[in-house]
Design goal:
- The structure is a single chain.
- The protein is α+β, with helices and mostly antiparallel strands.
- The protein folds into 3 domains: about 110 residues; about 180 residues, no CATH class; about 110 residues, Sandwich (Immunoglobulin-like).
- The protein is about 35% helix and about 25% strand.
- The strands form 4 sheets. Strands 1, 2, 5, 6, 7, 8 and 9 form a 7-stranded antiparallel sheet that branches. Strands 10-15-12-11 form a 4-stranded antiparallel sheet, with no helix packed on it.
- The N and C termini lie far apart (about 90 Å).
Length: about 450
């Protein structure tokens, strides 16, 4: 009787605690995931994991556009599937999970669709360019390969800038209390004296051209002949979009821009002349725009700073007065002595030959060029490029220009820097190109070719 009762109790215990299955016993985490796979938070975790994985693949592996397109589609369709489950959650009155799921899912679906659409457009445009499909590198012609961005010529010194440099003093002044007052006159007396001297603007332009930190270019539609100041922080010139500079940490504590309108026109056409405009932004930063006529030229200084009082503008005015005072003294004694005002780290070479040095940009087909030449008179430099075997012009309407540096010494070469993109061809399709350096004199004489050089290049794959 006791034996029967014990057997009955064992049977009841077995029924109450069934035996664990194989997966539950050996892979409990897998069983747990399957049990919660349709929970709204688990579905979102899977989508976020998919997005992170896709981002890491694109960042570190750099796959072909076709694979990125497929991954974007996978993210989109998986997100759409999850959206359907979110609608079911709402119908079953799982309000919080349904709303959160729909919001996140919508963002991820749009991200996947946008990525797929972008790569599809890139593939479609790239497929249209068959320019270099049948081109071969010409035989018997020496082709120079562009240098990598780190392989700078002697025109790009490798040393750090000293603490007495222009840009160092302007940046360190960003947090200073020594700023402007609303009634301060932001003219630079030495710059005004130079521009009103006979041929003073000519020597000013020659000086700015020779300085490694000033860049002179022509923008006929907006401001005419114009000079902008670049920063040289780590031994190389830093050029930025529209010549604006931000603080090193890119957290927008300050923003700065400096330019000189050499044709008497400001880069800011709507700005009031001979005034400093102050305004406070929603972020709390103060924005200052000073546009002042200095004789025949116009000085533009833009500053946006968390420190009130525009201390960077105030420091800029002091430094410019010092810089142009030294230039004014030299050309007052002998105009040809202007070159002595150029910093030791100069864009001039003695006993040199004309040359063009090409550097690869951040993508194939995008190039930077160092041009060393001396046309002997004022004027504009510009580039022409041709495919060698058939003579086809390359990116004919997109080649850059720059104001030429010059002197009476034919063995003295001046550096001008230009950036451009070759649109003909695709990545990896190398062909020979002839680059010609042309000169348009200010004297209205005919344009003339200064020299040429052959390179092995590729086109930018759109």
């Amino acid at each position: 009787m006791e034996a029967n009762e014990n057997g009955l109790q064992d049977l009841q215990q077995n029924e109450e605690t069934p035996k664990k299955g194989f997966f539950q016993k050996n892979f409990p985490w897998f069983v747990w995931c399957v049990r919660h796979i349709f929970d709204w938070w688990m579905r979102l975790l899977i989508l976020v994991f998919l997005l992170i994985t896709l981002t890491l693949i694109i960042k570190f592996i750099d796959p072909e556009f076709e694979y990125v397109f497929l991954m974007g589609l996978v993210l989109f369709f998986v997100s759409v599937g999850n959206g359907i489950f979110c609608i079911v959650d709402l119908c079953k009155r799982r309000i919080v999970g349904g709303i959160i799921g729909l919001v996140v899912t919508s963002y991820l679906a749009l991200s996947g669709l946008g990525l797929a659409f972008f790569t599809f457009c890139m593939l479609a445009m790239a497929a249209e360019d068959h320019f270099a499909d049948d081109l071969k590198l010409p035989e018997g012609i020496e082709l120079t390969e562009p240098l990598e961005p780190g392989e700078y010529s002697v025109g790009h010194p490798s040393k750090k800038v000293s603490e007495d440099s222009f840009q160092y003093q302007v940046i360190t002044a960003a947090n200073s209390e020594k700023g402007l007052k609303k009634d301060d006159d932001c003219r630079v007396p030495a710059l005004e004296k130079i521009s009103t001297m006979p041929d003073g603007c000519e020597y000013l332009i020659r000086y700015l051209n020779a300085s490694p930190e000033w860049d002179v270019y022509e923008d006929e539609d907006r401001c005419g002949l114009y000079a902008v100041r670049h920063f040289q922080l780590d031994g190389s010139i830093h050029k930025s979009m529209n010549h604006y500079y931000l603080d090193d940490e890119y957290n927008w504590n300050w923003q700065y821009r400096l330019g000189i309108g050499l044709d008497g026109r400001s880069w800011y056409p709507a700005a009031k002349m001979n005034e400093t405009e102050f305004s406070v932004l929603k972020s709390g930063k103060q924005k200052t725009l000073s546009v002042y006529s200095n004789g025949k030229v116009v000085l533009d200084i833009f500053e946006e700073n968390k420190t009130p009082g525009s201390p960077m503008t105030a420091m800029t005015l002091r430094l410019l007065e010092k810089e142009f005072h030294a230039l004014h003294l030299l050309i007052s004694e002998d105009p040809e002595q202007w070159v002595k005002a150029v910093p030791a780290d100069t864009n001039i070479h003695k006993d040199a030959q004309p040359d063009i040095i090409l550097y690869n940009g951040f993508q194939g087909g995008i190039y930077d060029a160092d041009i060393w030449c001396n046309p002997g008179e004022p004027g504009l430099l510009y580039l022409k490029a041709f495919e060698i075997t058939q003579g086809t012009p390359l990116s004919e309407d997109r080649m850059p220009n720059a104001k030429a540096g010059y002197s009476g010494d034919p063995n003295e070469m001046f550096l001008r820097e230009m950036g451009f993109t070759i649109y003909e061809g695709n990545w990896g399709q190398y062909y020979g190109a002839r680059f010609e350096v042309w000169f348009k004199p200010d004297s209205d004489q005919l344009d003339r070719k200064l020299f040429e050089k052959n390179f092995k290049i590729e086109g930018w794959q759109r």
